[in-house]
Sequence to fold (848 residues):
Amino acid sequence: MNALDAGPVVGKTTGRMVAERLRKGLGAVPLALPLLVLVVVLALASPAFLTPTNLENLLVQSSIVAIPSLAMMMCLVMGEFDLSVGSVVAFAGAITCTLILSGVPTLLAMGAGLAAGAGVGLFNGLVVTRLKVTPFIATMATLVIVRGLTLVYTNGHDVIVADPTLKLLVGARPLGIPMPIILAAIAAVLAWWVLNRVRFGRWVSAIGSNREAAAVTGLPVDRTRVLVYILVGSAAALWGLFISAQLQKGSGLLGIGFELTAITVVILGGTSLKGGRGTVAGTILGAIMLETIRNGLNLLNVPVAYQRISVGIVLVAALAVIGLRDRYGRGGRA
Amino acid sequence: MNDPTTDHGADVAILEVEHVTMEFPGVRALDDVHFDVRAGEVHALVGENGAGKSTLLKVLGGVYTPTRGRLRLAGQEYVPVSPSDAIEAGIAVIYQEFTLFPDLTVAENVFIGREPISRLSRGIRYGEIRAVCRELFSMLGVDIDPDARVADIGVAAQQLVEIARALSTQGRVIVMDEPTAALNSTEVTRLMDVIRRLRDEGRAVIYVSHHLEEVFEVADRATVLRDGRNVATLDIAGTTEAELVRLMVGRDVESVTHRDQVEKGEVVLRLAGLSAGSMLKDVDLEVRRGEIVGIGGVAGAGQSDLTQAILGALAIRAGSMELGGARFAPATPGEALDAGVGFLHEDRKRAGILPDLSVQQNLSISVLKRVRNGLLRLLSMRSERELADGYMTSLRVKASGPDQSISELSGGNQQKVMLGRALAPGGRLLLLNEPTRGVDVGARAEIHQLLNRLTAEGAALLMVSSDLPELIGMSDRVVVLSQGRVVGRLSGDALTDENVIACATTGMRIGVSA
Fold:
């Protein structure tokens, strides 16, 4: 194209490069505006919305959703996704609570819960890479299997604990900041780092961008894929620990549909289902967006069923906007 | 600038392109393009990658609506807003990227969207579409089963199915975008015959090709595009290849492939009785330092299996490999890479570019361990930038900068980036598949100069090419494969077009004991 053939500009920071960087860096901004509008509307609609307690509660909930969503984003950037998340949430929580009840030190029990999640991720990864089952089918099967396992393990009962140490996972306030917010901030920094500064992250983008090219380029494609599934499994298990810490129980019925929550957050954040690209900031904003909708609708006493409908509508609207942007915002070329 | 619209009075313009401008955000892909195409002529459209040919074809085919300007078809204003409008108006476009449905049969693909329906059962009249397909294929002189699944037939056959589909629309204007890219020389000859027949029937054929020899063989006139503008429309009879190239590039280019004399050193790669995959059998081969060994043969004769086997991507059944005198048996492409083997895949789009990543990230992907530093082994943006700058300068990649998305580059520049990626592992041995496929004349000449330079610096090159002038012109020796076996070893005076074709197509043996 004439614009590109204007001349080789190599190695110098030009205005265009700066503009390019800004555009990439602010990839999440399209979501910031609707979020701002939503906040203003809710603030006007409900006096309870803009209170410190409610805002803190909203951010805590967003943080709990954001961490597994960041892992899910990695998976989507790789061009795949993991549907087994909701069952892992229940599985990890149930294991941790059962172990606590049987006298295992809380931290050890939490470690076991996380390890169980990592194990499920490893299983997913091996099924997908070794048995060549497509991720959709493989992780859907795992979703069902692990849900069943959890119900068997708990005999279908709630495993109720009263454990102050476990409670600290959501209740502790180092430096006055709630623990989930601190953990989400750490997770966001780590995710950004991995995606932009660590070789592994680059491999994930490369695989999501063109898996065949990644393979002939000599990248360890299968090893990378397995690691990403382990990451998602572990993050899902952490989600389960958050839930069990909040509710002080484990149950085979927790976490139903959470995989879709995580995928919704990632897509709201502007990550393409086709893989190759994703932003950390977008995912965080996606989590805040989703939780703001839920929080607002709760304050307005909208029944849960309607809340689900509105989340669905927001998701479709977000995808439509992304689709329009892709079609008209970036022209095709000769 | 020559006036491109010279009407000879007697000739009837069937398609008139009037001052068409096509703008995309930030890019003007077509800038005031105007020319006409006459009924009963073959009109070539030539230009470098990124000159706007594909955009123009998409305007003609109703995929894009031009920002300004208009089209006239047989004197009537022609305003297609969708591809089906174009087909209905009688313009059939054969795109470079295949638009076939792999899971449908050949006949279903040819008639997709225009299926004749039985009045009685409302079902597709399969008998009819099969019969028409057979007729079309016999005209094309090929034997393709109308009931075969498209996924099961080869790339060349798929290209012919695309052509058959365009012919079956009975269009007044048939547009072909690089139709010969996947065809062997016999199929190309037949296609040329078909194009002449279409012309003699009074249809207009718009023919887009990088192969100027084809343009001179079949076209009556040629319109040259450069940077989105038409610089000239010429009678082919009154021009020369050099003139066309000069107009395309805007400067004089040495379009003739030239291989420098380079001193050969010790053997870098040695294959002894190598059998691999389902095809490759008993291949003996040596490549020396400073040498380019070409691999020829008809499409699918085992060329890509050979490079895949050396890369460690294809299971080896028998025989052995040596790299630099030591036993070499990579289990994965990663191991081959670590041993300093660079690889260029023949299909840039399918297995080459990482479309979502930048030029810099595409260059560095295979050698990320070289750009890590510090205690945490993090990627250093600065050393990655230095690596990218180095290759972008030495390969003369035209881009706005290392951070530009590779998807925004022209084919020739994407190919240079892919070559850079192949060089990055160290370049002791380079396995190059189709180094200039889909690349314009200017970039092609630059890539050939680069190959000369690499061998002068001591690299050993194994080059698979289906482009005969390139294979003959750039190789020091050529090994011809047929059905996975070596049938010819050609060098010196024996290295001619005729000998390569004879070995490849008739299985005649030259320089190989029977």
Summary: Residues 117 and 323 of chain A are 34 Å apart (CA to CA). Chain A touches chain B through 46 residues (CB under 8 Å).
